[in-house]
Design goal:
Layout (H helix, E strand, L loop, with lengths): L2 H10 L3 H11 L5 H13 L1 H6 L6 H12 L4 H18 L7 H14 L2 H18 L6 H17 L7 H15 L4 H27 L10 H17 L4 H5 L3 H8 L5 H17 L1 H4 L3 H10 L6 H18 L7 H12 L6 H17 L1 H4 L3 H12 L6 H16 L8 H9 L6 H18 L1 H9 L3 H11 L2
Helix pairs in contact: 2-3, 3-6, 5-6, 6-8, 7-9, 8-10, 9-10, 10-12, 11-12, 11-14, 12-15, 15-18, 17-18, 18-20, 19-20, 20-22, 20-23, 22-24, 23-25, 24-27, 25-26
Length: about 475
């Protein structure tokens, strides 16, 4: 959002209920310029529109914008498509009741649009899939949407840059459709592997004979890796047979060592997704992959580092105790990153989760370092929602405290605060928290505990008393 929305928006709110119908009316103006500007203006108020009852403004706005997507004028088509993508992002699942109607329009636009606007249409379809997620997985919707997408897919040559937005769009669609994408996955998967293979081969030839060959456009490889990630995430275990019949692991080994950071970033994301979906095929490569992951824990390249960190955490959860030989390759870098000033929030959270997961599978190896990371660990995870990743990380920290209780004594208040950040921990995790809190209280004695808990902010004191009786 630009500064208009944040500063002026509040001042506009009282007038919007009257203004909206007038602006929506402008979408039908006989001047194309007015229609296209009305699209843009209305998109600035998408957030407000979605906050009102749907029949009030969302429905009429959506109905008129969809008509404008099929406008005779190219500039209006473009403005309407962009505005609709913005509306989708704000409305998310509010759009579910209208999916059939929306898809009819977007699919009709496929036959109507010329080259440039097709690219914006792909974006609108991808954003729709991101916004409604699994609600798109209905036979009726798949029947409408997939044939035109696959027709375009078959039309475009491997060298055609128009593949980029189509691949991005399909990645969102595959993730949303989950098992609904199964009938289409094989040719899509094969082509992505081919795109990666071709790009790597061309890069190899270029590096050996730069005067004879052109440098490849590595974007082909990046979008193909991202679509493979979308397939792995959407299809889960169903991707197993596709991976088994391809050389993707060999290609991934090369991509993870590419000189271009964006290629490495996408490779590590795919590695993490394949680890979750079909670890059987990843496991034989772990000995080769782990040192590469370790060298990429370099916060100069934030996104590369972030994805490498996340992938290591996913590998931990699959490897279990067999992770032991690899802990030393990554632990010191992770501890260094979590203590760095000005590290972005997402990277801090991912680093904390991965340290927790390493400690979960190899507590003996990680626990001695507790005093070096426990404080930033607790502060970076206290603000994230309860979820599976947070669950495994906290189990790890509890196991490490079991091995090295002295390692948290200095910073125990931070641990208390992090425990209190849980809304609904699973019963056995709640028991782990209970034992640690009560163990600490018994260790120091009632009087010292009294003094210690005096430092707690009132809210923390209340929560711990209510949930854990300390």
């Amino acid at each position: 959002m630009d500064c208009f929305s944040s500063c002026c928006m509040q001042g506009m709110v009282p007038y919007l209920p009257e203004l909206m119908p007038h602006l929506i009316q402008c979408l039908c103006d006989k001047k194309a310029l007015v229609r296209s500007i009305a699209c843009w203006t209305l998109s600035r108020y998408a957030h407000w529109v979605v906050s009102q009852p749907p029949d009030a403004h969302l429905k009429p706005l959506m109905t008129e914008l969809l008509k404008r997507i099929l406008d005779g004028n190219k500039r209006v088509q473009e403005a309407a498509c962009s505005a609709f993508a913005t509306l989708e992002e704000e409305a998310c699942t509010e759009l579910v009741p209208y999916l059939s109607f929306i898809l009819d329009t977007l699919v009709f636009a496929f036959g109507k649009y010329q080259h440039k606007n097709l690219l914006i249409l792909y974006d609108a379809i991808g954003t729709l899939a991101d916004s409604v997620g699994h609600h798109l997985n209905q036979p009726e919707y798949i029947q409408k949407l997939m044939p035109p997408l696959i027709a375009k897919w078959n039309e475009l040559k491997d060298e055609d840059k128009d593949l980029f937005p189509l691949l991005e769009c399909l990645s969102s669609v595959a993730t949303a459709l989950q098992s609904g994408f199964l009938p289409y996955c094989e040719p899509v998967y094969q082509r992505c592997v081919t795109l990666v293979q071709k790009t790597l081969a061309q890069a190899m030839m270029y590096s050996q004979q730069p005067d004879q060959y052109e440098a490849p456009d590595k974007d082909f490889m990046i979008v193909a890796l991202d679509l493979l990630s979308g397939l792995a995430e959407g299809l889960g275990a169903h991707v197993d047979t596709l991976v088994a019949r391809s050389n993707i692991m060999t290609l991934l080994f090369q991509c993870m060592q590419d000189t271009m950071p964006e290629v490495r970033q996408s490779s590590f994301a795919l590695l993490g997704d394949l680890t979750k979906a079909c670890f059987l095929h990843v496991k034989p490569c772990i000995a080769e992959f782990m040192p590469i992951l370790g060298t990429n824990l370099n916060p100069e390249f934030i996104s590369v580092c972030n994805n490498a960190t996340w992938a290591i955490g996913e590998v931990c959860m699959q490897m279990g105790v067999e992770m032991q030989p690899y802990v030393a390759m990554v632990l010191n870098q992770l501890v260094e990153i979590i203590n760095r000033p000005n590290t972005p929030k997402t990277l801090l959270e991912n680093t904390a989760i991965t340290i927790g997961r390493l400690g979960y599978v190899c507590p003996q190896e990680v626990a001695p370092l507790l005093p070096q990371f426990i404080r930033p660990w607790c502060t970076s995870l206290r603000n994230i929602r309860d979820n599976e990743e947070k669950d495994s990380a906290f189990r790890g920290i509890c196991m490490m405290i079991g091995v090295n209780p002295g390692g948290v004594v200095q910073d125990f208040i931070f641990f208390c605060d992090a425990v209190a950040s849980w809304v609904n921990p699973k019963d056995d995790l709640r028991d782990m928290f209970y034992k640690i809190l009560h163990g600490f209280k018994e260790q120091v004695g009632d009087e010292n505990w009294q003094q210690f808990s005096e430092q707690f902010p009132p809210l923390l004191k209340e929560r711990l008393a209510a949930c854990y009786g300390v």
